[in-house]
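We store chain and fold; thus.
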Amino acid sequence: EDYDDGETNFHCKKIKPSPKEWQLLRQKIGMVFQSYDLFPNLTVMENILLAPVKVQKRDEDEVKEEAVKLLKQVGLSEYGDAYPRELSGGQKQRVAIVRALVMHPEVMLFDEITASLDPEMVRGVLDIMQRLSDDEHMTMIIVTHEMNFAARIADKVLFLEDGKILEDTPGKEFFAKPKTKRAQEFLESMDF
């Protein structure tokens, strides 16, 4: 989507909003949506291999070997030949994370990825994100209402309302002592 105001910078370089620039930038940024967005007509493995093989022109055997390892890490090693319709919501979300990671992104974007999951599935997905932060030191931008998780993982919190940033605060500081009254009210409503 085009934006109306502001600018996008990546590695201190202003991105010119052109199709070519966006295509190059998208290869460096992984995105996981709350709706999974898996291709229903492809198996789990085919979903994972599609972009690295077709877009990045990587060797299919090499990517498949990496995908097998990542599926094992997220507890889905036996689902490579399954179709999305055969998976639970939490399993689909873990496949979507593997699909993004196999592209070797520099940054991962997570858009409310636990919103459509059963409460018991939320924990497994959040554990994967915690490992990405702790073990891989992955830069992640996370849109979430999971405040306990955000408090554990956030280096920085941007608190938004009506499309405006109300707070831009270090993570621990935001949860200990938010600066704005609106952020205080929000945290109180979350029983945080």
